[in-house]
């Protein structure tokens, strides 16, 4: 009887030891599976987000505006720019009014304005925006009298140590008294570094009767 009891106790001990080993192995296996499941998402590359509209100007006080019209060129003393003009905007409450007084103060015979980031950045500062994904730059323009000629509407093209990664434009463009939408094709352009978000230029010779024109709703799409 005593021998049988010892035998049963020994068998029970062996059984419990074996069960512990199996449970331990299962637990380790479960831990490995959990770790693998947790690591898989971090190893995957996130999908690129679809480009949304990027505004340069919609209304004077819009929090979504980007770039500053600080890069005045040519006869810069002859430029009058008002980005709070409230008469007949394309949308919202304001638009941009640009006037060239034709005094040829700098002797250039032309004017130009760059919308820059930050202001007065001619390629000397590492700044600007990555606009990768945009396929076009759209904007609305009209003239004060109609028949005004804008030599060029463009984006990019600023050179320097930290130059623009792209340049594209249209022109010359004849504008009317009615608002008209213009578009600059950006497909295939490297838009990873844009400090000159928008630019317009015009000459005195093309506008002998004076030049006043308006801009509104400038954005990348």
Explain the overall architecture:
19% of the residues lie in helices and 35% in strands. By secondary structure, the protein is an alpha+beta fold. The protein folds into two domains: 46 residues; 167 residues, Jelly Rolls (Sandwich), CATH 2.60.120.430. Strands 1, 3, 4, 6, 11 and 13 form a six-stranded antiparallel β-sheet that branches. Strands 2-5-12-8-9 form a five-stranded antiparallel β-sheet, with no helix packed on it. The radius of gyration is 33 Å and the shape is globular. The N terminus is likely disordered.
Describe, in short, the structure shown.
This protein has 221 residues and is of the alpha+beta class.
Search tags:
five-stranded antiparallel β-sheet, 221 residues, Jelly Rolls, six-stranded antiparallel β-sheet, 2 domains, 35% strand, alpha+beta, 19% helix
CATH class of the largest domain: Mainly Beta
**How many structural units, i.e. domains?**
2
Low-confidence stretches: 1-48
Binned, the helix content reads 10-25%
Radius of gyration, rounded? 33 Å
Structural class: alpha+beta
Question: What's the CATH architecture of the largest domain?
Answer: Sandwich
CATH topology type of the largest domain: Jelly Rolls
Q: What order do the helices and strands follow?
A: HEEEEEEEEEEEEE
The share of residues in extended strands comes to: 35-45%
Averaged pLDDT: 84
Termini gap: 92 Å
């Amino acid at each position: 009887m005593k021998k049988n009891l010892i035998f049963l106790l020994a068998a029970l001990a062996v059984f419990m030891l074996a069960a512990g080993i199996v449970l331990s192995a299962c637990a380790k296996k479960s831990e490995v599976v959990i770790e693998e499941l947790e690591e898989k998402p971090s190893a995957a590359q996130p999908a690129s987000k679809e480009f949304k509209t990027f505004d340069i100007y919609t209304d004077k006080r819009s929090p979504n505006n980007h770039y500053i019209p600080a890069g005045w060129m040519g006869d810069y003393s002859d430029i009058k720019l008002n980005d709070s003009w409230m008469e007949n905007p394309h949308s919202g409450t304001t638009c941009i009014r640009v006037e060239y007084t034709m005094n040829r103060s700098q002797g250039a015979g032309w004017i130009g304005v760059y919308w820059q980031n930050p202001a007065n950045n001619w390629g000397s500062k590492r700044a600007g925006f990555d606009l990768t994904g945009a396929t076009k730059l759209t904007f609305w323009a009209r003239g004060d009298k109609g028949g005004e000629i804008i030599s060029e509407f463009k984006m990019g093209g600023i050179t320097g140590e930290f130059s623009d990664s792209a340049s594209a434009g249209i022109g010359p463009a004849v504008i009317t008294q009615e608002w008209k939408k213009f578009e600059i094709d950006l497909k295939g352009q490297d838009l990873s570094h844009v400090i000159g978000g928008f630019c317009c230029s015009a000459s005195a010779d093309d506008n002998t009767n004076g030049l006043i024109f308006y801009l509104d709703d400038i954005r990348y799409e």
